[in-house]
Amino acid sequence: MNQTLDELGWRPFFDAQISSHDDAGCHPVRVMAVHRGKIAVAGAGSTHLIQPYIPDAAEADDHPTVGDWLLIEDTTLQIRRILQRENLFKRRAPGKDQKTQLIAANVDTLFIVASCNQDFSAPRLERYLVLAREVGVQPVVVLTKTDLTDTPDDFAAAARHLQADLLVEMVDARDADSVARLAAWCGKGATVALLGSSGVGKSTLVNTLRGSNNIATQAIRKGDDTGRHTTTVREMHRLDQGGWLLDTPGMRELQLTDAAAGLAEVFDDIVNMAQHCRFANCAHNVEPGCAIQTAIADGSLAPARLDRWRRLVTEETYNSASLAERRALDRIAGAAGSKRK
Question: How large is the average pLDDT for residues 167-184?
Answer without folding.
Answer: 92
